[in-house]
Design brief:
This protein is mainly alpha-helical and about 160 residues long. The chain is built from two helices and three strands. It has a three-stranded antiparallel β-sheet with strand order 1-2-3, with no helix packed on it. The chain is flat, with a radius of gyration of 20 Å.
């Protein structure tokens, strides 16, 4: 019995630290992406073609690392991304970036109010993350244009 209690106490102290470490890793990856974007902008203003090509490659690599870390977080925290009891009054349609959708698809009840909970990037200005069945759409609320799509986001 004592071993079970000790194991439970050790798990209770280690798991929050692991989650915080993953969150710090994701934040560090986002910072690296911002730095690579800044370097690409500098290369586009002052560099030659080779500099621009290298900076674009570095930015792609930083984004790939972020996606990989995000997928690992999602796989390890399945309960956060559980589908839950979610229903919609209309049928599923597959939307892609650039498509203009009707307002009923991005009504306030479908807006994700806490995107940081799902490790989604911040939506600025008129952009909002919207749930559409198991997909997540980044929608411009003024025009109804879909900017980004994550398919099968929820389990």
């Amino acid at each position: 019995m004592r071993k079970v209690i000790l194991f439970g106490l050790m798990a209770a102290t280690v798991l929050p630290g692991m989650a915080a470490a993953q969150t710090r890793e994701l934040a560090r990856d986002r910072q690296e992406i911002r730095e690579e974007q800044r370097d690409l902008g500098h290369a586009q203003r002052y560099g030659d073609r080779q500099d621009i090509r290298e900076e674009r490659r570095d930015l792609r690599e930083a984004k790939r690392e972020y996606r990989q870390d995000w997928r690992e977080y999602r796989r390890e925290h399945r309960n956060v991304y559980a589908r839950g009891d979610w229903r919609s009054p209309y049928r599923y349609r597959s939307f892609g970036p650039g498509v203009r959708i009707e307002q009923r698809y991005y009504a306030p009840r479908y807006v994700i109010g806490d995107p940081w909970r799902y490790r989604l990037p911040a939506a600025h200005g008129p952009l909002r993350w919207v749930r559409h069945y198991d997909d997540v759409l980044l929608v411009n609320m003024r025009t109804g244009r879909v900017v980004e799509v994550h398919r099968n986001f929820f389990w």
